Amino acid sequence: MAKITVVKNILDANDRIAEENRKLFDREKIYVLNLMSSPGAGKTSLVERTIVSLQNKYKIGVIEGDIQGSADAERIASLGVPVVQINTGGACHIDGNMIREALPGLDLAQIDLLIAENVGNLVCPAEFKVGENTKVMVLSTPEGSDKPAKYPLMFQQSEAMIINKIDLLPYVDFDMAQAKRDALTLNPKLKIFEVSCTSSVGLKDWFDWLSGRIESFQST
Amino acid sequence: MAKITVVKNILDANDRIAEENRKLFDREKIYVLNLMSSPGAGKTSLVERTIVSLQNKYKIGVIEGDIQGSADAERIASLGVPVVQINTGGACHIDGNMIREALPGLDLAQIDLLIAENVGNLVCPAEFKVGENTKVMVLSTPEGSDKPAKYPLMFQQSEAMIINKIDLLPYVDFDMAQAKRDALTLNPKLKIFEVSCTSSVGLKDWFDWLSGRIESFQST
């Protein structure tokens, strides 16, 4: 009982901080994308492709969440966009407070789209809001099509699922119909994209969808 | 500060229960393998291959840890070995107490090797002992060779790392030398196997190593 109460308090406190972040982002007109997946599903590659495609249209900033190291932040910085590295020091997700503490490292007036790349984890990040407009998840084909049924919360919490590494479909055991059916059963409104960040196939639909979301947010 | 204290208390309590599990397993002469990885790295396939190879030599039992569902337990049960499904109901790892509660579902006198397949997660399971003799992790090539540097605790806590899906090496960006070097930097005693559960290449070395561990345990 005590343990359950503690967890609830932590989540309540996080929700409050996430809401404060959200108010700040609204004032600054910053659209925030919380990007989640298992380790190695291709989040950083997707962020790179998204920056290259949209950086002439929007001012983009990135927050990289990793347990340790700054390899992903260095990849992103090489594209010429501002990036802050969060090192969680062991924690399995980023939370509202980590995002708040990262913000002084960014010039918010110079950002239209802020991408927060979460720690690679298909479980815990889905429980913690950071002040995002949208949660988007990446599922890669080598992980298998049984993942929605086994890790439901992530699929329920996400507005969109990007099925990445479809270039590997000939070599892996991935039932696309099963993955989509199970994900849509959990979340009937889930928007699904099939892409390869290696070959670029399918990415235009993702860029268009994200642009639509940003423009709809900016016009409110 | 309060949060840190709570986490420590939970881990202390878990260590105590894991130690009680360990004493029970020692009395019953059961070698326990805690198997961990990211989602979809191939834990269940490895368990299946291991059962098929070793079930004439050892009496094997399995505990399947999943957030929900019983698909993996059904796969294992079809091989004719006793299996108990733990549903963590959202929790991102299995712990000592979950294992203790699963044990009445198994006839311990009929088990030499107990395999506990953890929830797919490269972070949290490494923090929780369950009463195992050994922790073994699976890293799959599509996840990328940067994973040791980014998720260090899992590599530090494991006695062996099984690099799975080497049949996909021609199609993915995985630097084998980097993965091994970074993992060995974190854990110089780490035993490394390169395998494919699809083609079976490399698996014999894993079966031999595990058999050696079981026999060494039984003879003490």
Identify the quaternary structure here. Answer: homodimer
Radius of gyration of chain A: 17 Å
Helical run tally of chain A: 8
Most extensive interface: A-B, 35 and 35 residues
Classify the secondary structure makeup of chain A into a structural class.
alpha/beta
Q: Helices and strands of chain A, in N-to-C order?
A: HEHEHEHEEHHEHEH
Low-confidence runs of at least 5 consecutive residues of chain A: none
Provide structural commentary.
Two copies of one chain form a homodimer. Chain A is of the alpha/beta class and 220 residues long. In chain A, helix 1 runs parallel beside helix 4. The longest helix of chain A has 26 residues, at 2-27. Chain A is built from eight helices and seven strands. The model of chain A has no long low-confidence stretch (mean pLDDT 95). The first copy, chain A, has a seven-stranded parallel sheet, sandwiched between helices. In chain A, strand 6, helix 7 (176-186) and strand 7 form a beta-alpha-beta unit. At the A-B interface, helix 1 and helix 5 of A face helix 1 and helix 5 of B.
In short:
The structure is a homodimer of 220-residue chains. The first copy, chain A, has 220 residues and is α/β, with parallel strands linked by helices.
Q: How do the helices and strands line up, and which of them pair or pack?
A:
The structure is a homodimer of 220-residue chains.
Chain A: H1 2-27, E1 31-37, H2 43-54, E2 60-66, H3 71-77, E3 83-87, H4 96-102, E4 113-117, E5 134-140, H5 147-150, H6 152-157, E6 160-164, H7 176-186, E7 191-194, H8 203-218
Parallel strand pairs in A: 1-4, 1-5, 2-3, 2-4, 5-6, 6-7
Helix pairs in contact in A: 1-4
